[in-house]
Amino acid sequence: MKLTSLIAATVVTVLGATSIVSAGELPDLGGRTIVAVTENAYTPLNFADPKSGDGIGWEYDAFNEIAKRLNAKVDWQLSSWDTMIQAVRDGQFDVGMDGITITEERATQIDFSEPYMTSQQFLLVRADEVRFTDSTSFAQDAQLLVGAQPGTTNFYVAVYDMLDGDEANPRIKLFETFGTSVQALKIGDVDTVLMDSTSAQGYMGANPGAFKVVGDALGTEDFGFILTQGSDLVAPINAALKSMREDGTLEELNKKWFFEYKADQ
Questions:
Q1: Cβ contacts of residue 236 below 8 Å, gap of 6+?
Q2: Distances (CA, A) of 225 to 67, 96, 171, 183
């Protein structure tokens, strides 16, 4: 399965039926400031520019465009992954994003926008890896280690779909961010990092010749923006996303961040 075909499919159908909304019919938020939070550790969705240190990435561009279409401003804030959902739930931030998978369990705590991207999970490995070729051969070699970020979908897929269902399995090495787990992979501290195809594509693009993907997709996940339950921003954000999907803006962002971006730009 080619990653290029997966990325081309990232603009997905919405969770539920919505009415057709043209750009001229989008809600006007009257210059309202939306406090948005991300982690800056999930290339190419959100990360710090290697040159300036500013936050950049697919999600930055997408949400800045959403705000522009809704006549709103964005106040960008940073938070670690492990506190982000709770902080949005408590109303500390209006909206959060970090490649967050839409799940029924999370939807009991916060509201989700319609999905802005669908991705499949793969094993990212070093480019010279020859000891295993898929999740089955990885699992069979007890010496091999997987890096993961606790509490993420990728962590749970590694535990329950790749290994033995033991969340304390010593073959899983935990890291605070995806970036640190990928760096551990790069220097040989772990042997694979399970991540969605969008992020894997970004890391391969930013580090030519360093990584590759092996095996078939292990699962499919929809990403959505998270909001405080009952937020009046859900409908406007969904309307803006719909207009961006229809006019090709989301596809242009895919092209920019998954095919054209290089870390040394």
A1: 26, 27, 29, 70
A2: 13, 6, 32, 27
Distance CA 117, CA 203 (A): 17
Closest by CA to 183, choosing from 198, 159, 203, is: 203
Alpha carbons 57 and 208: distance in angstroms, whole number: 18
Which pTM was predicted? 0.71
What the block records as the tokens of 185 is 């992979």
The mean pLDDT value for 219-240 works out to: 95
* Average predicted confidence (pLDDT) for the chain: 87
The predicted pLDDT at position 163 comes to 95
HEC secondary structure over 182-200: HHHHHHCCCCEEEEEHHHH
The torsion angles phi and psi of 60, rounded to 5 degrees, stand at -60, -50
Average pLDDT (179-203) is: 88
Interior/surface letters 4-13, b for 16+ CB within 10 angstroms, e for the rest? eebbeebbbe
